[in-house]
Amino acid sequence: MNDESALTIEERIYFIEQREKIRELVCDYSVAVDDRDIDTIANLFTEDGVFAHADGTAAMESRQEIVDFYDGRLGSMGATYHFPHGHKITFVDETHASGIVLAHAELSQEGKTYYTGLRYMDNYRKEDSQWRFTERLLKFVFFMPMEEWAKDGMAQQNRKRFPGEG
């Protein structure tokens, strides 16, 4: 859908409403991850959904693989808090869209609080009147202990210092 100005007012209202529903999907994901609500996480992805790190280090290629990943991953972490910020949504048609989400998260691991800047590159599909992720690629812009970030972390060349890597 390159020329939204050619749409009728009713069609424009429809896509405004759908944008809001996709934004709710992203918010629901953040809350479900922070609340360790695996059933909700599962329902937010299509059966053939993909969740992967954009750098290729991890890829789950079905709803069940995504559930298994989160079930194991979240059990080993302390508290988390995800903050979705800017969200650009582009519609392909009435039931398919893509999006880029800018976000931050605070994570507790190994007795430390980590701060991370994230980008999610998403694809969405509307199924049974509900928008779901068909693909969610996660890119870490930075990831480091909070005290390092507050000191001078963004000025450092290595802005990705993950738990267990020193």
Automatic annotation (TrEMBL):
What name has this protein been given in UniProt?
SnoaL-like domain-containing protein
UniProt xrefs under InterPro entries: NTF2-like_dom_sf, SnoaL-like
| SUPFAM superfamilies for this protein | NTF2-like
Lineage, please?
unclassified sequences, metagenomes, ecological metagenomes
Where in this chain does the record put each SnoaL-like domain?
Answer: 16-136
Q: Which Pfam families match?
A: SnoaL_4
Q: Which residues form the signal peptide?
A: none
**Organism source for this protein?**
marine metagenome
